[in-house]
């Protein structure tokens, strides 16, 4: 949104005016001051503009008509990457300025203004790379409309000396551009060229080979096209890259990452190449080509060989994506180049795409410093490309999916962070520590909730250190004075333990699924009772059991659980996430008892009989079998039952494989019993019958999904009939499922429900911290803490 509110304060009535304007929003690091300068001079106004740590201030004097025109254009023509929140102005006593100037930034209080996310390189800068001069083939070209922001900032206000560009003094030519109002690089803080700016180097086997960009690019091409692995320092950390058309290269990368089955993301040279491999709608293309340049989940086309364009790709090979890229899933994560270096690299490659995955190892954060990259990657890759601009703030690539015609953020990082969520509640001084998996934390400043970038799973020491370090940076950068802590009520979460030990402050414990719903409510500024449907893997419940499929009536302060999926044993506890067959056996045992071993089910024949007997004994004696009400575990059970995923090599593999085989146009469903406890006994009996009869797994999966959609619809209708509530919030990781979410939304809206599901906030545990924050804030407002 470019424009939210203008407040007027008139005190004079002459044809000449002098006013002070205060602009709030995401307006630093996006060329906002140069935009103001040009607009003021074009409208014949004098005065000044300056950054402060909390806003942009503008003083203009001149003809009233010119000032009115200036104000309208200020709201409607702001730079593309800016998000103007509010504009306030008041009349002042004229000072008779002789011209319009940009004043030095000022640090006026503990308040803060929005910090821009990193912005993909723009077309003008790409053109500059083709022109003879100090920016020809320069891999760090940028201007006021593009380039690094969040990843290089150290403090506010956003000025060069408070970024990691401070160590690169401007050469005379860059300094001239920086000070020239007519230049596109006017006051662009990361401005640089090959004379004065950062540079790339390439290393092989720990030895520095060259800092000549042409040597770097040619060596990179040779490594990639010979089937090698390349580590590359990017905007927010390292990437690992290889040829996605080379089976051996992709398998080599899987071995390095210890990543048996999780799909890899691919960076394509341009959108035209993407269309040969995946279906891409207008909205998906729009998201792909936006200045954020996210990874977007697309539907892969049936293997389609192409002959490479000889004018650009001289090899003429027929290229097939390696099946190892997606490991059999029908969705594929695709992004476009967003750094100048990416474009230079593709100009030198004879292939139209690269596998581009985070440069880290299992349960560790993405590597961002040169020394660690050389230590970790020198002996396991064929080359390392580094640059000498420090990364201040790590940032993975974001992941989005278009569902129901809307962009839904699944992983919030580069390009999206640190844009705040504006709240209707005072969240100042609250720190929400988030969940344990897919962690993000959230800090409150005034009425702004600021979510961190994607941190990851807090089960490795390095990630926990990254988490604690980043939290301290956010507190310093956004000038947060901690006053209240919000944590998940699960006593064993690492985030909960860290939060409870933080500064000895008061602590608010928040139920996991209430936080999911509240996060979505915060995104849409809802502050009333809603029907909340929270579907995910697991979350600690108020009854001591494990929850994950909850229908609630809730507001921002509290909730009441109305119904839920029926409890079943979770044999082996967390081990079920790695071995989904355990959940299938659990459901079958709940329905058939010991007779389950006599069922003629193919998946049962793949399980060691001794393991099976042990599991049945555990459930019979209730040993290490906590009760669970979980949509995620239900999807796991069905995926194993129909032979898709007995053992998971990555999180949510079973549900993802179940979704990937859905057949469009199938309306059939299974029987389920709704009520206080929603039971799937008949569902499983009917699925067992279909499996034994040989019904195709894709049809079973589709019918199962239709069953869940029907259960949601009937349950929500029942709650509305009793409670009189018409607003429904859908959240939790299971709603990353495109088929499930889009059809559930459509069915509910057709019955005149107002439906809300996360868009800019992840529905998974990456959004939980926002929910914790807003719940703690509301309870504080009501004096419940």
Radius of gyration, in Å, reads: 28 Å
Structure class = alpha/beta
- What is the arithmetic mean of pLDDT? 92
The portion of residues forming beta strands comes to 15-25%
What tags apply to this protein structure?
single chain, 785 residues, alpha/beta, twelve-stranded mixed sheet, six-stranded mixed sheet, 22 helices, 34 strands, globular
Overview of this protein structure:
By secondary structure, this protein is of the alpha/beta class. The chain contains 22 helices and 34 strands. Strands 7, 8, 9, 10, 11, 12, 13, 16, 17, 18, 19 and 20 form a 12-stranded mixed beta sheet that branches. Strands 1-5-2-4-3-6 form a 6-stranded mixed beta sheet. Strand 23 and strand 24 (448-451) form a beta hairpin. The model is unreliable at 8-12 and 304-316 (pLDDT under 50).
Brief overview, please?
This protein is an alpha/beta fold and about 775 residues long.
Strand and helix map with partners:
Elements (H helix, E strand, L loop, with lengths): L4 E3 L8 E11 L5 H11 L3 E6 L4 E8 H13 L6 E9 L8 E3 L20 H6 L43 H8 L20 E5 L2 E4 L2 H13 L4 E4 L4 E5 L4 H11 L7 E4 L2 H4 L3 E2 L2 H7 L6 E6 L5 E2 L10 E2 L11 E5 L4 H9 L4 E6 L11 H8 L5 E5 L11 E5 L2 E6 L9 E2 L7 E3 L9 E4 L2 E4 L9 H17 L6 E5 L5 H7 L6 E4 L1 H12 L6 E11 L5 E9 L4 E7 L2 E2 L11 H12 L9 H4 L3 H13 L5 E2 L2 H11 L11 H8 L16 E2 L2 H13 L3 H27 L3 E5 L6 H13 L3 E3 L11 H14 L4
Helix pairs in contact: 13-22, 14-16, 14-17, 17-18, 19-20, 20-21
């Amino acid at each position: 949104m470019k424009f939210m509110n203008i407040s007027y304060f008139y005190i004079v009535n002459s044809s000449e005016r002098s006013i002070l304007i205060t602009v709030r929003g995401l307006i630093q690091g996006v060329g906002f001051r140069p935009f103001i300068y040009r607009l003021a001079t074009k409208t014949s106004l004098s005065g000044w503009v300056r950054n402060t740590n909390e806003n942009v201030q503008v003083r203009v004097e001149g003809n009233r008509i010119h000032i009115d025109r200036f104000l309208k254009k200020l709201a409607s023509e702001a730079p593309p990457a800016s998000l103007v929140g509010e504009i306030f102005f008041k009349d002042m006593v004229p000072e008779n300025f002789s011209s319009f100037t940009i004043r030095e930034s000022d640090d006026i209080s503990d308040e803060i203004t929005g910090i821009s996310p990193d912005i993909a390189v723009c077309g003008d800068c790409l053109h500059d790379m083709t022109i003879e001069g100090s920016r020809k083939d320069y891999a760090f070209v940028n201007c006021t409309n593009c380039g690094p922001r969040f990843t290089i900032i150290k403090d506010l206000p956003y000025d060069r000396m408070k970024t990691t560009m401070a160590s690169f003094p401007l050469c005379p030519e860059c300094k001239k551009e920086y000070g020239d109002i007519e230049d596109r690089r006017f006051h662009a803080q990361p401005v640089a060229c090959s004379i004065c700016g950062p540079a790339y180097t390439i290393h092989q086997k720990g030895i520095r080979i060259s800092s000549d960009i042409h040597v770097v690019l040619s060596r990179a091409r040779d490594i990639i096209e010979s089937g090698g692995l390349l580590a590359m320092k990017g905007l927010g950390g390292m990437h690992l890259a290889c040829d996605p058309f080379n089976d051996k290269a992709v398998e080599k990368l899987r071995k390095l990452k210890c990543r048996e089955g999780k799909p890899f993301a691919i960076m394509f040279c341009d959108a035209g190449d993407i269309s040969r491999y995946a279906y891409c709608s207008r909205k998906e293309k729009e998201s792909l080509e936006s200045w954020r340049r996210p990874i977007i989940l697309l539907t892969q086309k049936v293997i389609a060989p192409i002959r490479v364009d000889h004018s650009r790709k001289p090899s003429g090979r027929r290229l097939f994506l390696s099946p190892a890229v997606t490991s059999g899933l029908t969705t594929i994560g695709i992004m476009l180049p967003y750094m100048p270096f990416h474009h230079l690299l593709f100009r030198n490659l004879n292939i139209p795409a690269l596998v581009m995955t985070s440069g880290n190892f299992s349960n560790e954060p993405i590597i961002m410093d040169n020394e660690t990259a050389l230590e970790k990657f020198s002996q396991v890759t064929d080359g390392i490309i580094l640059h000498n601009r420090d990364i201040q703030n790590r940032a993975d690539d974001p992941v989005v999916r278009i569902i129901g015609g809307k962009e839904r953020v699944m992983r919030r990082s580069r390009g999206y962070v640190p844009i705040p969520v504006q709240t209707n509640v005072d969240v100042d001084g609250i720190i929400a520590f988030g969940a344990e998996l897919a962690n993000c934390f959230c800090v409150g400043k005034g009425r702004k909730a600021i979510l961190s970038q994607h941190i990851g799973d807090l089960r490795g020491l390095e990630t926990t250190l990254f988490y604690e370090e980043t939290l301290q940076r956010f507190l310093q950068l956004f000038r947060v004075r901690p006053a209240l802590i919000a944590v998940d009520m699960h006593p064993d979460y690492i985030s909960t333990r860290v939060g409870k030990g933080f500064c000895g402050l008061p602590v608010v414990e928040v139920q996991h699924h209430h936080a999911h719903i509240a996060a979505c409510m915060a995104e849409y500024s809802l502050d009333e009772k809603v029907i909340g449907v929270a579907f995910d893997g697991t979350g600690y419940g108020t009854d001591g059991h494990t929850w994950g499929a909850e229908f609630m009536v809730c507001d921002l302060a509290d909730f009441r659980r109305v119904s839920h999926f029926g409890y079943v044993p979770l044999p082996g506890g967390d081990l079920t996430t790695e071995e989904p067959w355990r959940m299938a056996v659990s459901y079958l045992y709940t329905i058939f008892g010991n007779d389950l071993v006599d069922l003629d089910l193919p998946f049962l024949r793949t399980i060691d009989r001794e393991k099976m007997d042990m599991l049945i004994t555990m459930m019979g004696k209730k040993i290490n079998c906590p009760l669970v009400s979980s949509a995620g575990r239900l999807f796991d059970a069905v995926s194993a039952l129909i032979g898709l995923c007995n053992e998971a090599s990555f999180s949510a593999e079973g549900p993802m494989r179940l979704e990937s085989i859905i057949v469009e146009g199938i309306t059939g469903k299974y029987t389920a019993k709704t009520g206080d406890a929603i039971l799937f006994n008949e569902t499983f009996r009917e699925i067992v019958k279909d499996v034994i009869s040989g019904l195709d797994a894709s049809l079973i999966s589709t019918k199962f999904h239709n069953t869940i959609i029907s259960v949601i619809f009937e349950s929500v209708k029942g709650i509305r009939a009793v409670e009189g509530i018409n607003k429904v919030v859908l959240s939790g990781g299971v709603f990353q499922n495109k088929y499930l979410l889009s059809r559930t939304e459509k069915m509910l809206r057709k019955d005149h429900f107002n439906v809300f599901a996360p868009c800019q906030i992840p529905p998974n545990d990456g959004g939980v911290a926002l929910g914790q924050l807003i719940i703690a804030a509301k309870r504080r407002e009501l004096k419940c803490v």
